[in-house]
Amino acid sequence: MNAVNFRTDFNMDAVSRWRPEQVAAIPMQADASLPVIVERDVVPLLTGHVVWDMWPIAHEDGSTLIADGRSFWFFLTAPRLPDPDLRHDMARIRLFSRGSDGWLDHGNTFPNGFTPGSREWSGSAVLGSDGATLTMYFTAAGRAGRERTFEQRLFETRGLLRIEDGHPHLGGWTEPVESVVADGACYARADQREPDFGLIRGFRDPGYFRDPADASEHLLFTGSAGWTDEPYGGVIGLATRIDGCWKLQRPLLSAVGVNAELERPHVVFHANRYYLFWSTQRSRFAPGGPSGPNGLYAMVADQLEGPWRPVNGTGLVAGNPASKPQQAYCWWVTGELDVISFIDRWGMEGCDALSGPALASGQFGGTVAPSFRILISGDQIHAASETEPDENGG
């Protein structure tokens, strides 16, 4: 499959918006705060390494693959460094599994030098109907062998998965191909050498979704509006497979003027409605405007193209408590409505994470956060109790 620059006259008036007045109502959500993470929650997955953004191996219908009592998850990983922010410059995708005995490590997903970026960033993984062909959608950040940049490109590759006694055998990857390319008009090109005012444009986090209404295939992604110079121009982009190629569509959601980054977007189809989830941070809300916590957010619609309306009236599903505003990040909702994230800067006790990398490193979890379930009732979503892996690896 070749990347296609697809241009059309998008009807931008039809793009749903996350509006300031919706965000402004977030402080009234008294029940949206997650429990405080404590020391017993911080259990490393891999000695000497940190893990963060994660996504499951899922079937085409969005349900999580369970084999031999285990679910299988890809994480971004890097060696534990004195400054945890440097992990983004050496991120690799690594496979883990979870069962009744906890988490197991299964090694790096791709051979050294296989992917076209200087590091591997987030995506999604879909197991085909044959039960063996796995398609990995991922972000290639920068370019291999070149000076570090914040360029982001969407790639995909297919491999073969076999699971024996709970142990995955994954390989035979095809040469990565670029899925779809930012057009520079609707979607800004993410090609910065360095951040601007601490912000980077987005064209990353490809999330696969097959629409049960017509079996059409889509990729969602974190994007930046190309039609404005507004630095807080976050959008959730969409590409649709047409005649074997991914082609850009108008964004599903715009937060222009409200928020700069709507990260890790993914859709869950539940009770005949579409639920669009993403994560964002307080620091990504536009200065001078309303803001919400680092948290999991969502919109709901009756069809994929929208219109999308904010769940709970605000968009916030669950966020970090005010006393621990950076304790966790990057929430992923499975087709079974389980939610997983990673422990970020926990136990800061009022300290400023910018006061120095040593402090930040000491309080950076770099491991899996306590999971929880969500309860959905129409346009309302609330977090339920924390969960532990059950006998099916869920």
TrEMBL record:
Quote one Gene Ontology molecular function term.
hydrolase activity
List keywords of the entry alphabetically: Hydrolase
The protein's matches in Gene3D superfamilies, at most eight in alphabetical order, are given as: Glycosyl hydrolase domain, family 43
Q: Which CDD domains match?
A: GH68
InterPro entries found in the cross-reference section: Glyco_hydro_68, Glyco_hydro_beta-prop_sf
| Pfam families on file | Glyco_hydro_68
Q: What does the similarity note say?
A: Belongs to the glycosyl hydrolase 68 family.
This protein's name: Glycoside hydrolase family 68 protein
Origin organism is Sphingomonas oryzagri
